[in-house]
Every structure is written in structure tokens, then in C-alpha cells.
From TrEMBL:
Organism: Chanos chanos (Milkfish)
Entry's localization field: Endoplasmic reticulum membrane; Microsome membrane
Name of the coding gene: cyp17a2
Domain of life: Eukaryota
Protein's name according to its UniProt entry: Steroid 21-hydroxylase
Broad class of where this protein is predominantly found: endoplasmic reticulum
Length: 469
């Protein structure tokens, strides 16, 4: 009944009972690099067994488009994993929750609430500019001492999300801010890293340091967020949302399906917006500075563009975006060469379907290797080189290659994309208008390999920050 192509089996890694392909996956390489290497042997679409779970790895743009876009809905499921279930109270969030009608209306509500405060609203711009300014004050105070940017950047980005989600913000040395940074880091270190408990759920009954740490971090997070939720509920004025949390609470009381959105859903969504907002943006900013240290001539070119188009008397704002194509292309090139989410979040086939004519049974996990797409030599000239010009045409205008998908695509595309792009633009432009970044005397250039996890973070490095005027 199938066409002949339908019957072709997908190449599969060697598999043994119980362990599946885990023996072939033992490697010092992080998963995105290992999968890219395996793709050169097994092809752009190959299969493997993570223990009992049949999993496809997709590393070429055509099948990736099929999975994310053409058949986006069929592949919009998410696997149940021990760590993410713990993080999200059994999938009451957006990112790790399986596809369902409730998830759909929940995601729609989050999208609508984001638009209230994100795109098109001057509120976000004001918030980011203020956070960027206080970051500049902090950096200026360091008087050229070598420093690790991760703390101050994280603090600034946390305050942006904090004001957006809760209308509150922290002073730089507020102990609660440190608590937030600490629990976030603990979660990033332990969540969805392809660990064994996420493959064999029964392993959770054994003592497990990572799982214990995750539980502890989640409980700290929950205490903090529940307090915010209660405060908001007490002071809520229907029709006048002050922030994302208000918008969610108002939307929750809406009609129909939405009434199934429980307080747990609201709490998990706030937690997720908070976590995603902080980790992705700060990581991208850290990668940006790391690459600028490696490519001082790119930094000079940004400085020149900023001096010419904005000057030094006022902060760059969103309406300058179209005038700063080079700066925008630098941010794109950073997200291409170091995607914060190199294999996205696993997708799951929700019904029997196919990829490239190959049959894919319901329940198959699909890993989209965005790293491989962003480093495919057939699509990119010298993919391992940092070259922002690839995002510009011959006249210096912005262009977006179709193989550039740092936010994913389709029904599971990042909900924070426009927010993230605005925030990155405002932070990068403000920081480079005010400062030059250089390698401290005697220090070495930042390592560009990064540390694999739910986000691909750079290893820590130090930098000298010099005011430009
Ligand atoms: C999902 C990238 C910032 C919220 C995702 C996915 C990627 C991504 C690759 C997974 C897509 C998939 O599984 O197919 C990024 C990048 C960011 C960024 C590169 C910044 C540089 C943000 C921000 C927020 C956010 C600022 C929220 C404030 C989410 C959520 C999802 C998601 C809720 C889950 C969507 C779903 O599963 O339906 N993001 N993200 N992200 N992102 Fe982002
Ligand atoms: C970051 C740590 C937080 O404490 C919890 C959290 C929530 C949402 C996650 C985020 C973490 C990491 C980056 C993720 C985001 C959802 C979408 C985003 C995975 C774990 C990406 C890049 O896919």
C-alpha cells in the first residue's frame, strides 16, 4: 500500500536490546556535534534508539522544513521526560508540554499577553533602555578592571523580564536576585540534558544528585513565584493588566477552554517566560561579546556604524534598527554560529506520518539538528567562520538566508522571538555605543566551544570594558 519510497527504511545506528543505540553514542563530543558527525556517515535523516525510544535526527534543511513547517502540526508533540515534568508540574507550561487543545489555547493566551507588552508597545523599549543604562553605570564603575560579564548581564536581563512579567525589579546586590540567578543556573545544569533519567524514568527511584539539585531549585523557584502570584491576585484590576502575570490572570478567567487554565498553568508560564527570557538573552549577549573579542575589526565596524547613524548624544532606539544593518547582521551571525538551542526541544510525531517519503510511526521522537543546518557547507560558505556580511547583500542591506532558523519555525516556533530580537538589538547597540570591549592584558581569548546543556553557554571569560567617551 505504500509507495516504494515509503518502504525505504531510514538508516539506523547499531542497536542492542535494552540499551538501544546508547553504546554508539558514547563520545566526548556534545550531542549536537556528535549528531553532526554521525550525519556525515548515516545521512541527513537517521534513526537511533535512546533506550526504548525510537528517535530520528534531522540534519538537512528540506526534511527540517517538512517537520517544522509543512507537517508542523503532526510533529508538534513533546516527549514526557522526568526532569521537565518536575520543572513544569507535569507539563503545565508551553515549551515542554505535549500538544493538546488546552496547550493551544494556553499558547495563544501567552502570545496575546506578550504582544501587550512586547512588539509595538513603547513599554518594552523603555524597560530595556533603563536596564541597559543601569548596566552601563555598573560597567563604568569597574574602571577598566578585567571582569566576567555574566553576572552584570544576567542581572540586567533579569530585571527586564522581571518588570515585564511582575512589574518589579532588583537592585544590583539584592539577595533575591542572587537567589534567582542561583536557582536558574541549577535548573540549566540539570534539565533535559539527555541524561539517563530522561531515557529510563524508573531510574528516578535511585539517589541522583542532579535530580535532587533540580528538585531543590524548583522548590526555591516555586516559593518565590507563588508569593508574586498571591500579591498580584490581591491587587489585580480586571481590564488594567500591569504586566504579563496580570494578563495571564485576566485571560485565565476568559470564556470556554481558557477556563481550564489553572493557577498552576499561570505560575508555570510566568516561570517559563522568566527562565527563557533570562537564559537565552544573556547567553546570546555573552556569545556576542566573546566573538567581538575574537574579531576586533567587526567591533570597530559596529562602532563606526553607530557613530554615523546614531551619534553619541542619545541612546539607540528601535526605530534605528533599519539604519544599523551591520549591527543586526552581527547579532544574526552570532545566533547562526552559536544557536542557544542547537537541537531545539525534542519534537514528537503525534500520528503516523512521514519525512522525505520515509514512514514515521506515531510516537517517534524527532531531534532537529539546527547546529548542522547552521553549519552546513552546502548552504554556507566557510560555515565555521564568523562573517556577519553573509547577512547583508552587496548594497549592505539586510537579508535573511532561508537556512537561518535560530528560533525554530511552525507551530512550536519560539513565542519570545520578537521580544528577544528587540532586546538583543537594544542591549548590543547601547553597550557598543558606550564601550569598547577588549581582552585584558595577559588573559587569553574566550573559548568558543561552549558548554552544552538546555542552552549552549560560553565558558566564562574576562573582558576589559573601556568607555568610549
Ligand atoms: C521555544 C530559541 C528567547 C520563550 C524556543 C525554541 C527555540 C528558541 C529554538 C524551540 C523551538 C522548537 O522546539 O521547535 C530562542 C532564542 C532566543 C529565545 C534563540 C533568544 C536569543 C526567548 C524568550 C522567551 C522565549 C525571550 C520568552 C520570554 C520560548 C517558549 C518556547 C520557546 C515559551 C516554547 C514554544 C513551544 O514549545 O511552543 N525558543 N528563544 N524564548 N521559546 Fe525561545
Ligand atoms: C532556563 C532555566 C529556568 O529556570 C527554567 C527554564 C524555562 C524555559 C526554558 C529555559 C529554562 C531554557 C531555554 C529554553 C526555555 C524554553 C525555550 C528555551 C529551553 C530551562 C529554548 C532556547 O528552547
Amino acid at each position: 500500500r505504500h509507495s516504494s519510497r515509503m518502504c525505504e527504511t531510514v538508516p539506523c545506528l547499531p542497536t542492542v536490546p535494552f540499551l538501544g543505540s546508547l553504546l554508539s553514542l558514547r563520545s566526548p563530543l556534545p550531542p549536537h556535534l556528535l549528531f553532526t558527525q554521525l550525519a556525515s556517515r548515516y545521512g541527513g535523516l537517521f534513526g537511533l534508539f535512546l533506550g526504548p525510544h525510537y528517535t530520528l535526527v534531522v540534519s538537512e534543511i528540506d526534511p527540517v522544513r517538512e517537520v517544522l513547517l509543512q507537517k508542523g502540526r503532526e510533529f508538534a508533540g513533546r516527549p514526557k521526560m522526568v526532569t521537565t515534568e518536575l520543572l513544569t508540574r507535569g507539563g503545565k507550561d508551553i515549551a515542554f508540554a505535549d500538544y493538546s487543545p488546552l496547550w493551544k489555547s494556553h499558547r495563544r493566551l501567552v502570545h496575546a499577553s506578550f504582544s501587550l507588552f512586547g512588539e509595538g508597545s513603547s513599554k518594552l523599549q523603555t524597560i530595556v533602555l533603563e536596564a541597559a543604562d543601569s548596566l552601563c553605570v555598573d560597567l563604568q564603575a569597574c574602571r577598566g578592571q578585567p571582569l566576567d560579564l555574566s553576572m552584570p548581564l544576567m542581572g540586567a536581563v533579569t530585571n527586564v523580564v522581571c518588570r515585564l512579567v511582575f512589574s518589579s525589579s532588583y537592585q544590583p546586590h539584592d539577595p533575591e536576585l542572587l537567589t534567582v540567578m542561583e536557582y536558574n543556573d541549577g535548573i540549566v545544569q540539570t534539565i533535559a540534558r539527555g541524561g539517563l533519567v530522561d531515557i529510563y524514568p524508573w531510574l528516578r527511584i535511585f539517589p541522583n544528585k542532579d535530580l535532587a539539585r533540580l528538585r531543590e531549585c524548583v522548590s526555591v523557584r516555586d516559593k518565590l513565584l507563588s508569593k508574586k502570584l498571591e500579591e498580584h491576585k490581591k491587587t489585580l484590576i480586571p481590564g488594567e493588566p500591569r504586566d504579563l502575570l496580570d494578563a495571564l490572570l485576566i485571560g485565565q478567567k476568559g470564556s470556554g477552554d481558557e477556563s481550564d487554565i489553572t493557577d498552576d498553568h499561570v505560575l508555570m508560564t510566568a516561570a517559563e517566560a522568566f527562565g527563557a527570557g533570562v537564559e537565552t538573552t544573556s547567553t546570546t549577549l555573552l556569545w556576542t561579546i566573546a566573538f567581538l573579542l575574537h574579531h576586533p575589526q567587526v567591533q570597530e565596524q559596529i562602532h563606526a556604524e553607530l557613530d554615523e547613524c546614531v551619534g553619541r548624544d542619545r541612546p539607540p532606539c528601535l526605530s534605528d534598527r533599519s539604519m544599523l544593518p551591520f549591527l543586526e547582521s552581527v547579532v544574526c551571525e552570532v545566533m547562526r554560529i552559536r544557536p542557544v538551542s542547537p537541537i531545539l526541544i525534542p519534537h514528537v510525531a503525534m500520528q503516523d506520518t512521514s519525512i522525505g517519503g520515509h514512514h514515521v510511526p506515531k510516537g517517534t521522537r524527532v531531534l532537529v539538528n539546527m547546529w548542522a543546518i547552521h553549519h552546513d557547507p552546502k548552504q554556507w560558505e566557510q560555515p565555521d567562520h564568523f562573517k556577519p556580511e553573509r547577512f547583508l547583500d552587496t548594497e549592505g542591506k539586510r537579508l535573511t538566508p532561508s537556512c537561518f532558523l535560530p528560533f525554530g519555525a511552525g507551530p512550536r516556533v519560539c513565542v519570545g522571538e520578537s521580544l528577544a530580537r528587540m532586546e538583543l538589538f537594544l542591549f548590543v547597540s547601547r553597550l557598543l555605543q558606550r564601550f569598547s570591549f577588549s581582552v585584558p592584558p595577559g588573559a587569553s581569548l574566550p573559548d568558543l566551544k561552549g558548554r552544552y546543556g538546555v542552552v549552549l553557554q560560553p565558558l566564562s571569560y574576562t573582558v576589559t570594558v573601556t568607555p568610549r567617551h
